[in-house]
Amino acid sequence: MKFKIVTWNVNSIKTRVDQLIGFIKVHNPDIICLQELKCEEKSFPLDFLSHLPYNFYIHGQKTYNGVAILSKFPADEIKVDFLNNPLPDQARFIEICFSNFLGLCRIVCLYAPNGGEVGGDKFRTKLEFYDQFISYVSSLISYDEKLFICSDFNIAPFDIDVHNPEMLKADTCFTYTEKAKMRTLLNLGLVDNFRITHQAKKEFSWWDYRAGAFEQNKGMRIDSIISTTNSIRFLEDCFIDYKMRTLEKPSDHAPVVAIYA
Q: Given 54, 57, 111, 130, which residue is catalytic?
């Protein structure tokens, strides 16, 4: 028996709906966490997706942000915010719970703020967002649950996760301060599924649309699935689907896939 989870910043679900359908045909995931929908719930393209074997849990916002979880398992609980979120008016968080052969599972789909200019107001808000999210996650850690956080974290945690760490060390998504937040989150008892399965592999999940960044592989690994240590003995593989970034009019992010058995 397999349990397959995907996280993907689609950068507009309406634009990528056909790509999502094609991806599902290839991978047949059990859980799909989507970020940056750029639409409200009422505008989510359910007409194109309703034939698929998923329950749809959507927290949308007009034009910006937006997150969704597509789940083959009906949710026993749904949340669309966390305590003391400094950006409650932005659709960046959705969470569901259900049970399967792994036991009680909690899935968090998160779209973390980018932060804008280092040191600016948006950057400070990003750090506060992480402080409150870390506090929230610390309240969830339980040996009775398996917690999976699927996210565009907008942080590349280690030097191996960017194409040129020396050049980027002062840039948003790779400053020491941001990396410290990510490591604090991991130190709660969470494991980066990709890094634990590929300890020395330098691969990325995001490439700027500009200046041929993808063609030159000048990217960052800012999209991850992280999970509690009690899930890791079930982890079979975790990989980044580069092919989705080669399609015509792709998202600037590639999906990350984790397989548990």
A: 111
How far is the C-alpha of 98 from the C-alpha of 114, rounded, in Å? 30
Q: Is 152 a catalytic residue?
A: yes
Q: How far apart are CA 29 and CA 32, in angstroms?
A: 7
- The 10s digit of each residue's pLDDT in 155-186 is 999 999 999 999 999 999 999 999 999 999 99
What is the average per-residue pLDDT within 190-213? 97
Distance CA 104, CA 146 (A): 6
* Domain segments of the chain as ranges: 3-260
DSSP-assigned states of every residue in 207-226 = E-SGGGTTTTT-EE--EEEE
What fold characterizes domain 3-260? Deoxyribonuclease I; Chain A (3.60.10)
Catalytic residue selected from 30, 57, 130, 152? 152
- Helix, coil or strand: residue 138: helix
